Amino acid sequence: MNGKHLTKRETLMLSLAVLFTLAGVVVQVVPGMKFSGQLSLVLAVGCMGWLYLCNWADRSDAGKRCKRVVVICLCAGIVLFVSLEICLLSYGTRDDSAAPADAVIVLGAGVNGTTPSLALQTRLDAVSGYLERYPETPVVLSGGQGSGEDITEAQAMQTALQARFPDKAFLLEDRATSTAENFRYSKALLSSAGIDTESASILIVTNDFHMARACLIARRQGVHALTLAAPLPYGWLTANYYVREAFALVKTFLLDW
Which residues of 76-98 are buried (b: 16+ CB within 10 A; e: fewer)? Predict the structure, then answer.
C-alpha cells in the first residue's frame, strides 16, 4: 500500500474483494449455486490483481502498457460474454412443441438418490405437457448414473413419467454421462426402433439455459433438433446457470468435437 492511509482505490478494491470472498463462501453451500460461489472467489482475486496492476501502472511505463492490454482483454471478454448470453436466452425461449415431432429425447440431469433434481423435474413437467397432446410420440429418456445417484437418470425419469402415463412405453438410454453421449446413444435407440435419425425431426427437452449447447451438440451429430425448453422456477438459480452455461458453451465450441 502507498503511505499510511488507504487510497480510495485501495479501499474500494479491498472492500469488493472482501464482499466477493464472503459471497463466495456463503453461496457455495446453497444447492445448485457452487459455480456462482467459485466465480465470486475468482472475482475477489481479480480485485486484488487489479489493485496491484493499477499501482504498478502508477509507477512505471511497463505497468501502464500491461494495464492497457488487460483493459482491452476485459472489454473483449465482456462483449463475448454478453453475446453468448444473448444466444443462450434466444435458444432458451424457443418452443417448437406446437406440432408433433417424429421422436422426443429428454436429456438427463441430476438425481438425488432416486428423486429427480429440480432441473430434471422441470424437464419431466415439460415433456408431460407435450405427451398429453401427442401421446403416441416415441420418447427416449437419456441419462446414466452419476455420483450421489442410486439409480440412473433414465430410470428416475421413467418412474416419474409412468406414474402419469402408465400405458406409455419409454425407450431408456441409461449409459450416457455427457450431452454428446446422450445424443449418440439415443440416436442408436431410435434407429433400432425404426426411426431414420438423419431425416427425422427430434424434439429435444432440456432446461432453457442448456438448450443452446444441446442444439450445438445435436447438430454436430446430425440430429435435426426441435426445442422444448423447461424453465427453472427461481430467478436467482436461473441466473446462476445462465452465467455458468456461457463458459460451458465456449468449452464445447472449442474442445468438444
Answer: eeeeeeeebbebbeebbeeeebe
Question: Do 184 and 162 share a structural domain?
Answer: yes
Together in a domain, 135 and 224: yes
How many Cα atoms sit within 13 Å of 237 on the Cβ side? 11
Residue 1 placed within a domain: no
Angle CA(168)–CA(170)–CA(176) in degrees, nearest 5? 160
- Measured between alpha carbons, how far is 123 from 160 in angstroms, rounded to an integer? 11
Q: Are residues 147 and 73 in the same domain?
A: no
CA distances from 211 to 48, 50, 104, 246 (A): 36, 35, 14, 12
Rounded-to-integer distance, Cα 22 and Cα 17, Å: 9
3-state secondary structure of 87: helix
Q: What does the pLDDT profile of the chain (257 residues) look like in tens digits? A: 444 578 899 999 999 999 999 999 999 888 889 999 999 999 999 999 999 999 999 999 999 999 999 999 999 999 999 999 999 999 999 999 998 999 999 999 999 999 999 999 999 999 999 999 999 999 999 999 988 899 999 999 999 999 999 999 999 999 999 999 999 999 999 999 999 988 899 999 999 999 999 999 999 999 999 999 999 999 999 999 999 999 999 999 888 76
Phi, psi torsion values for 148, nearest 5 degrees: 80, 5
Residue with cell 433438433: 225
Give the helix ranges, DSSP H, for 138-234.
153-164, 179-192, 211-220
